[in-house]
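haha ok so turns out i had the wrong file open the whole time. this is the CORRECT one, sorry everyone. sequence first:
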Amino acid sequence: MCLMIYVLGSVILLAYGGQCELTLDNVYGMLSARLDTMLLEKNIMKKEQDIMRTVIMDLMTSMTATNQQLKDVAAAEVGQRTHLLRRGLEKEKAATQSRFNSVQKTLEKTQSDIKCAANTTRAQISTVERNLAATKNNTKTLQSRV
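then structure:
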């Protein structure tokens, strides 16, 4: 669009060439310089776009790598916590088993003590029954003598 305005402007100026100091060479030189400037600006913008594209691609690559590292760290952390939890559960299980074994031994000892006490009590009851039977016999004998 700008090029067309410049061409149209140069034609108008050439038509009134006597009133103006512009010559075809001057107009061509100015148009050529302007076109060169526009092409240079276009090339500069293209290079800047390429640089920006490269920076964006590098940033995306960096973000992808960072995300992967975060996933790896998260997976390692979950694994470590699972391991610690498992170890904690194993320790808790061992402690509970130890307490259970202790209670079971205490129960067995108590049952044994109760059995011993029951046997002793039975023996004492048998002795008392024998003594009672002997006393009854003695009492009957005394009553029969009286």
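The chain has a mean pLDDT of 85.
again sry for the mixup
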